[in-house]
Amino acid sequence: MKWSRAFALLGGAALLGSLWLSWYERFERSDAAFIVTRGANDTESVSLLGMRELDGVAAWSAFTATDVVLATLALATPVIAWRRPSAAPLFGALALALVVFRLIEPPGPPVEHTLAIGAGVALAGAVALCGPYARYAGAPLLIAALWMPWYAADVEPPPDVGNLAAPELAAVLGSGEGVELALSTPWTLFTLTAVGLAILALAALTRIRRVAPTAGALATLLVAARLAFPPEALEPRAGAFIALGAALLAWTGAWLSVRDESTPGAAGPDVPRRAA
């Protein structure tokens, strides 16, 4: 019970503080193109031109009513955790659902965006508000993360390669099409991986002994691999790290449930008994 109250306090503070952090990073595009620079030894490097990263967007400036509701939940849930601990996770689940919705559906007109650090802080705070039920939030959060942008284009200036007209130095490939991939979800970038992660998340939800922890571990390894080896010319952003945290939470929750013998299929050890 004390741990639940402590998590409620920490979660409320994190969720409230995240409202002053940037939740989104928006991008501006103009005639974008991929540049492939070829060196003397047939080595290649990829740069993206015509794309500019704008300032981050904080929750207070982006939302109209969502920020007020989240602030109310962040302040009220710790108080409820002290008075009626059994009701506090319900408010935490409401905060988590609202944060996830806003990360998938940002307010305002549709623009190309990715997630910033404030999104991760808000999710961590909302999960902590769920108290003892936080272990069950990992798998649904991992599924929701599949609809969040994981990567953004590397918008650093291209290297100075001199005469771009020389065929051995550079070639321009496409125009604009690659940028759509740069700011899209896993369903567009790697559909088979997204399907596999969704299946593993559902398997972790079953809480069956051996199956659920194994599914959580495989999901964690799969997301970690996508972080370590991103698509070419793209770099991981907060959405990918949110997916990794969700996979770790799903793995931990499945392992704890099996350890507590609180799920179907979890059998306790055989204990020999002495004859009377």
TrEMBL record:
Q: Where are the transmembrane segments?
A: 57-80, 87-104, 110-129, 136-153, 187-205, 212-229, 241-258
Say which species the protein is native to: Solirubrobacter deserti
For this protein's source organism, the top of the classification is: Bacteria, Bacillati, Actinomycetota, Thermoleophilia, Solirubrobacterales
UniProt key word Transmembrane: yes
Any idea which UniProt keywords this protein has? Membrane, Transmembrane, Transmembrane helix
Q: What is this protein called?
A: DUF2029 domain-containing protein
